[in-house]
């Protein structure tokens, strides 16, 4: 059962990408789901009906598993602060029972300005947001679990983007899925660097570390360098290049309307979350990956323009542009 894995959150961004890459690498994959199974994977995945909030469901699903990928979030991200920790506690209980390794996709939310501008794995965790405080507690509980028979692998990365990345700044802020890209809305302050991570690269990094898990500490944390946008223009520039190559038109680069977020955030939970994280667009924060390089030798890294093209194709942006400019249809 050394290559049997349970994926929690398999229908989400990072969970789904991990599932695809684990299958390709020959793992026996189980996935816990509240809803319908995903037909794209056929019978290669053992889909189990259950809820990550039910300890009995998680314990049963994890029976005999060597690894549990914890990439689950509450449905629709509702009641995030109240439900995230109980979900993790269920995963921890299952991992301790099975002697399994927990894989957690980490973020930079659990760090405050005292850890900036270059972030190492062991930097002090003094967050200034509610979500950051929960992230600190998540990692603290995992560290405790690593002393009780479970093993833990945390891979922290910057803002996700990718063809199936789920909720993220790229598809919720910079562009609009399913629409041609006439303009790119950039949330960052001029000249301020920002950390991005291409989701398939993140999953590939986790998978490579998993193959070496027996040689890693029981509680192991790694940072990915990902794509460092040193002046806030590299990502928007890549989007503009890819769109021009595909359509012949160059999109305009515009400032993200933070004023509108401020007005609407009292009424929309997603906008409140976006506003709370605005500080990450106002302060440069670069992740140091020396520890990862020491273990893997190199970090999986897809060239930026290639990653952006795949992302825009996956979001339907380039298809939408092609349809609008096809012969017989008026260009907009």
From TrEMBL:
InterPro entries the record matches: Epimerase_deHydtase, NAD(P)-bd_dom_sf, NAD(P)-dependent_oxidoreduct
One Gene Ontology cellular component annotation held by this UniProt entry: cytoplasm
Domain NAD-dependent epimerase/dehydratase residue range list: 5-214
GO function terms (MF aspect): aldehyde dehydrogenase (NAD+) activity
Name listed for the protein in its UniProt record: NAD-dependent epimerase/dehydratase domain-containing protein
């Amino acid at each position: 059962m050394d290559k049997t894995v349970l994926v929690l959150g398999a229908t989400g961004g990072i969970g789904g990408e991990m599932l695809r890459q684990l299958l390709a690498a020959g793992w026996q994959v189980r996935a816990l789901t509240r809803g319908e199974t995903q037909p794209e994977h056929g019978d290669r995945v053992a889909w189990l009906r259950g809820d990550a909030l039910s300890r009995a469901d998680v314990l049963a699903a994890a029976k005999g598993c060597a690894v549990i990928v914890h990439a689950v979030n509450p449905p629709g991200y509702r009641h995030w602060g109240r439900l995230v920790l109980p979900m993790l506690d269920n995963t921890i209980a299952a991992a301790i029972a099975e002697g399994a390794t927990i894989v957690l996709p980490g973020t930079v939310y659990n760090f405050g300005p005292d850890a900036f501008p270059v972030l190492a794995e062991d930097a002090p965790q003094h967050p200034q947001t509610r979500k950051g405080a929960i992230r600190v507690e998540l990692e603290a509980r995992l560290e405790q679990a690593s002393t009780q028979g479970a093993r833990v692998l945390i891979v922290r990365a910057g803002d996700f983007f990718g063809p199936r990345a789920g909720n993220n700044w790229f598809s919720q802020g910079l562009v609009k899925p399913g629409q041609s890209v006439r303009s790119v809305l950039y949330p960052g302050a001029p000249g301020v660097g920002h950390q991005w991570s291409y989701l398939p690269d993140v999953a590939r990094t986790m998978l490579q570390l998993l193959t070496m898990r027996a040689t890693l500490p029981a509680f192991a944390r790694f940072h990915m360098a990902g794509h460092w946008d040193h002046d806030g223009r590299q990502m928007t520039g890549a989007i503009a290049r890819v769109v021009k190559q595909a359509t012949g038109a160059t999109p305009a680069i515009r400032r993200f309307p933070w004023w509108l977020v401020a007005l609407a955030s009292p009424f929309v939970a997603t906008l409140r979350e976006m506003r709370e994280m605005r500080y990450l667009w106002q302060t440069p924060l670069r992740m140091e990956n020396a520890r990862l390089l020491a273990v893997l030798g190199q970090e999986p890294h897809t060239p930026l323009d290639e990653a952006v093209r795949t992302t825009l194709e996956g979001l339907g942006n380039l298809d939408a542009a092609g349809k609008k400019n096809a012969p017989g249809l008026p260009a907009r």
